[in-house]
Amino acid sequence: MAGHDDESNMGKEETIPKDKAWKDLQIDKREKEMIKFIKAKKIKQRKENGNQEDTNSFGEIEFVGFDQITNKTAPYVRLDVDTDMKIVWELLVNVWRIRKPNIVISVTGGHHDIFFKEDRLKILLSEELYKAAVCTGAWIVTDGKSSAIMELVGDAIREKSQETREDEVVVLGITGWNVLLNNKLLENSCVSQ
Questions:
Q1: Nearest 5°: phi and psi at 77?
Q2: pTM, full prediction
Q3: Looking at the domain assignment, is residue 8 inside a domain?
């Protein structure tokens, strides 16, 4: 928009970097697929009063500052606890196009901070978890909360992914809706269109 009144810029269009435009098209296409899938499968979410309603909480979350060069986005959806696991699988593999795992590694932890007596134990755990996930083609599933062990997992995957510049490891965070701060910001009005 800038410079349209300036004669030196007349006829010149403002350009969007190709990778950004492509990324936006990909997100837009994925969002349309999500809406179609949600409607077709009649995916529900549970309201605070306990009743079910069509889900309106889905989209892309941007993890700002994921690395030095780009931000990381990931899809999310709010599902009712009674959602059929076949539908969840179809969503993950067919709609989100996450590769099928050979194994699933579940990492859980308490709400208490974990202090490693030696930094080398922390480094060893994070490096070996990453290696195990890459070598086996695993998904790492966490409770999606910000506890010490989850932060260790997140840091390990982020650091190793930055080193290799590839997204080799799938990490799924599964948590309760009421645990999320500002969860209303994750609601999407597009589903009713």
A1: -155, 145
A2: 0.74
A3: no
